[in-house]
Amino acid sequence: MKKKTKALIFNIALPLIVGGVSAYISRDGMESFKALAQPPLSPPAVLFPIVWTILYILMGIAAYLVSTADTEPQESDSALTLYAVQLGFNFFWSLFFFKLGWFYFAFIWLLILWVLIILTIRAFGKISKTTAYLLVPYVVWVTFAAYLNLGTALLN
């Protein structure tokens, strides 16, 4: 396998693994969540893993493009560090929300994640506009998730 192919596979696998491990750890809470009052516009549960899989793949492709871009190493390293931080925040949100049921805390955490995603989009966009566009569905979904999170907190 060529070096770039391995890098692409790694960059796509990383967010998929992070999301998968987070979902696995919080799976019991996801079952309990189904019994809670849901805000209007809540999508069916089957949609969440599909959407998150697509978003993680887009994130991985964006990270790959940044990691292999012809740019100053300091610029790409800085952007990828920010990406890693937001990915860590993404990981812990599910634990706070589903596993621990800390709905209000999870909402604040999600707002911080939202800011980190915006900062990542800006940092990636300085390197490649394509990478910024690849992250737009992610920030849109997290915005919707914030609505769902706050709605769940208020209703339960």
What report would you give on this structure?
It is a single chain. Helices cover 83% and strands 0% of the residues. The chain is mostly helical and 156 residues long. Helix 5 (103-127) packs antiparallel against helix 6. The model has no long low-confidence stretch (mean pLDDT 95).
Search tags:
mainly alpha, Ferritin
Q: Strands, helices and their partners?
A:
Blueprint (H helix, E strand, L loop, with lengths): L2 H23 L1 H7 L13 H21 L5 H27 L3 H25 L1 H27 L1
Helix pairs in contact: 1-3, 1-4, 2-4, 3-6, 4-5, 5-6
Which superfamily, in CATH terms, is the homologous superfamily? Answer: TspO/MBR protein
| H/E element order | HHHHHH
CATH top level label = Mainly Alpha
- Multimerization state: single chain
- Measured by DSSP, the beta-strand proportion falls in under 5%
Write the CATH fold name.
Answer: Ferritin
The number of domains is 1
Pick out the low-confidence regions.
none
Number of E-type strands: 0
Helix content: over 70%
Helical stretch count?
6
Mean of pLDDT: 95
Distance between the termini: 51 Å
CATH architectural label: Up-down Bundle
Helix/strand structural class = mainly alpha
- Overall 3D shape: elongated
Largest sheet: none
